[in-house]
Structures are given as C-alpha cells and as structure tokens.
Amino acid sequence: MDIWDTIKQELSNRIPAESFNEWFADTYQISNENGKISVHVPEPYFSDFITRYYNDFIKQIQDELKIDMDLEFTSETEQQAENKVKESNAVPVTGKTQIKKKSFFQKPRFNPNYTFSNFVVGPTNELAYATSMAVTENPGYTYNPLFIYGGTGLGKTHLLHAIGHKLLIEQPELKILFLSAEKFMNDYIVAVRTKKMDEFRMKYRNCDIFLVDDIHTLAGKTGTQEEFFNTFNELFDRQKQIVLSSDSLPKDISRLEERLMTRFSWGIIADIQPPELEVRIAILQKKAEKQHIQLPNEIALLIAKKVRKNVRELEGALNKVIAVAKLNDKKITPALVKKSLQVYSNDNETITPEMIIQYVSDFYKLTPNKLKEKNNAASIVLPRQIAMFLCKTLTPLSYPQIGRAFGKKHHTTVLYAVEKIRKKIKDDPKFSRLIDSFKISIK
Known about the structure:
about 450 residues, GMP Synthetase, Chain A, domain 3, Rossmann fold
C-alpha cells in the first residue's frame, strides 16, 4: 500500500461514502519523489475542488500519520506527462495544423451533500433558502442578481451548490459556471499574462448561470473588478442568472468600486445569521442520521449549547464526538460529549456582560464596541437593547452596573431598554422566541 492509499483509507472513515466515491475513489499515486507525492485525478477541476473542500481533512491525516510531504494533484498520468515533453521537443511539421476546439463548459461537479434537501431551514436563514429556491424556478428573471451574505460556515456555499444541483437535474442544457471570486481573479491574471483575453471572455460571458463564491475577495483588485463589472453587465443584460455570496453586505466590502456595489444590490440581498438553538439541534440530528447514528435529544441539545457560531463548527464538534466514541468503543453519553468538547466552552463559567455583548454582536454581525459607543442608528439600537435586557435577565447586576458595562451608559438608558424589550416580547411572538433562544444559547 503506497502513501496515498494510506491517506485515502483514513479519508474513507472521515467523510460520507458518497463524497469519497465521488472525489477520491478513482485517484491514485503516480510518484513519490523529492518530498512530493503526485496524485492522479480524473479531471483537472478535481484538483481545485479537493484542495478547496477537503484540504483540512487531508492535512489532519498527514499530521496524525507523520507524513511530512507535499501533495500535488494532476489529471495527467506519468505517461501523458512524458509524451507532452516529447511533443514539445519535436520538430514542428509543416502544413495545416488541426486545432482542437476547446470546451469551456464541462459539466460542473457539486458537493453531493450540499443540496436543498440537506439544508436545515430556520428563522435565521429562511430568506436565503427561499430566494435560492426561487432562482432555480425561473433563472435570470426572479431575484437577479441574488446576493447572499453571512459569516463563515453558515451555509452560503451550501446554497450555491444546491442551486447548481437542482438546475443540473431539471435543466441539464444550461451552461453553469461555479467558481470562487479568487478563481475568477487568477484566471483573469493568466489571461492577461498569456494574452488570451478572448478565450477568458468567451468562457465567462457565455454561461447561463453564474455562481460566484466569496465575492468579497475582489476588494482592492482594480483590474479584476473592471473585468468582473463588464462580465456582470454582459450577463445581466442577456438575463443570465447571477448568484453571489459574501461575508459582508455590498456596502460593507472595503475597497469595492461603487458601481459594483450598486449592481450587487440590484436584485435581492438575503442574509444568513448564526442558527438558533432549535435549528442547531435539527442540523446535528440530520448530520448524525446521514452517518447512520442515533443521536438522542439530550445529546444534541448538549452539543448545540456548546457550539453556537456556525454550522461548520457544529458539524466538526459532532464528528469529534462520534470519532472519540468509536475510538474508545463507547456509547455517546453526556459525559463523553463534555469530555470531547471541553475546548468549546466551560459549563461552570459565570455569565458576564462581556459574554452577552459578544454573543449578541456575533448574531447581528457587529463588533462589541458598536454596542458600547454612542451610536443611535437603528441597526445598533435594537441589538444594544436586547443585550441590556439579557444582562438584566441573566445576571444579578444592577442597572448602573449594566450601564457601566455598555460604555458608561446612564442607568435610565438601561431601564428604558429593558422595558422596551419586555413590551416587544409581549407583542411579538416571533421576537419572543428569538429572545428565548438567546437565553438558552447563552446559558
């Protein structure tokens, strides 16, 4: 068994079987020379996909097995590489040269786990889910462009894959491009350097569906922004569907040209916030079910209370608990969960205003200082009032003590905030459930 086979065997125990079969079953080691392992993949885009989505798994396995070697993924076999060298050294033949027409639209491969059916919907992501579904019903005409934003690991990439999956099945004739903004930038740089801008534009301006992940990485890239602007206009004018994801609102992406900022806001902007407790529990149970593991409600609740920020971290915590249970041949119990996830939180930790301010800030995508400074913008006032209410509800602090925690606010400001939130809880059942979720999560 060679080194790559050893890594593959470990991978097969850590990722879903369908994902392993899709991306790794047909790979094999070509060579092991000069501290580098060359691995053959069936198609060129396998390399990008494996590096992007499975790099952490592979690095972890290498560390555990003490394999200190670089991995290189290539779609060429050893013989093909040798033939290419021979061809480049051969004397060119006079006469007509037969040019093979390049196909820009290979059928894209999407993560088989990232489908609409596997996406757990809740109050914090229902708009993003609904609009993503809508664009697959009438691409190019409903919500174009669709701009999805939210923090890391909350499901933006999942929705882009889900859109691609559904369209591939229902409208296979469509030309779909799915890529990261960084890939667009790299392709643009190569096209400029090799003087192949015509090919670049032929590829990017003749698709039907344009799915671009992490668009915020274009910030400050003047030349790339210019080309993306022209590509966007061309596709939009021909009513081709554009879906973009970002970690920020268009107006909050630093060094983004105003004309791009405006265009990104032409359609609909849908945000994804950290999932509420009930949604986190549902996500855990769905993930466990896919691994054919029964996860009792009390166990799901325990994990969900410890991991609050994003879905990716939540899934990582579940995988760690499952791995520890398997390695020790034990059942998943509350004691095992607490021991496995000690790094995530401390059950005996006293709730402080700083903890509450941090939690509310994370939920509303603000910095803690925003809640403490003198700022009466509507986007700041409500989160600040909620945080003050939670401080009064979850801690023994007095109004003046809470006021000092919020940048030396007067105690009457805290009193007003608490009463305001109490009234809103009474009048708005949905808001009341949100506050209840905050309380459970913080506890």
